[in-house]
Write a structure and sequence with these properties.
By secondary structure, the chain is mainly alpha-helical. Helix content is 49%, strand content 6%.
Length: 189
């Protein structure tokens, strides 16, 4: 979501920050984030940025990505791109949310269980006497909830291994309790 959502949705009582500032404020401020299954996140980025858009965003072009390129080539390009050169839509979530191996947010929820996790976040914020976030907004939804396309894209075990190699830290930290095969099918067990 955009910065404006947090400013308006919490009456200006929250703001976006970078991970360096967040780490310095971790003891005095509350921060949270939601993560997404890397397999599902890649399928979403591929469909939205590579297939649907005629002009691939500049940072993705700089990575070597192009309109209508094949999915295996898309993954190979990502696997070979260093974090510093990667578009944020493809950057491992640990690179965004961790600094020097330390997870910065006080709370991590999962997109796949967002309704439940949002309620847990609300409860925790209330317990810490922080402002309510209100009802969970629905923004930027483009795909159906069944995520059956994930298993189609990752039918080849070699492609699954490319994701494990590039996003292994995300899988370990945020989805270590979920079977890899389920994740590569877009399912949480």
């Amino acid at each position: 979501t955009s910065d404006a959502f947090w400013s308006k949705g919490t009456h200006g009582e929250t703001s976006m920050t970078d991970k360096y500032s967040a780490r310095m404020r971790r003891g005095t401020h509350f921060s949270f984030s939601f993560v997404r299954n890397p397999f599902d996140r890649l399928v979403s980025a591929y469909n939205n940025k590579i297939l649907e858009l005629d002009d691939v965003p500049g940072p993705m072009q700089a990575m070597g990505l192009s309109h209508n390129m094949g999915f295996p080539a898309f993954l190979e390009c990502i696997e070979g791109t260093v974090d510093a050169a990667m578009d944020v839509h493809l950057l491992p979530q640990t690179s965004i949310l961790c600094l020097d191996g330390q997870l910065i947010p006080n709370f991590i929820g999962r997109l796949e269980t967002m309704s439940t996790d949002w309620q847990q976040l609300e409860t925790r914020m209330k317990r810490e006497r922080l402002p309510s976030l209100g009802n969970l907004p629905e923004k930027n939804r483009r795909r159906s909830d069944d995520h059956s396309d994930v298993s189609q894209y990752f039918a080849d075990p070699g492609l699954v291994q490319l994701v494990v190699k590039r996003y292994g830290d995300d899988l370990d930290l945020f989805y270590g309790d979920v079977d890899l095969q389920d994740l590569s099918r877009g399912q949480l067990s």
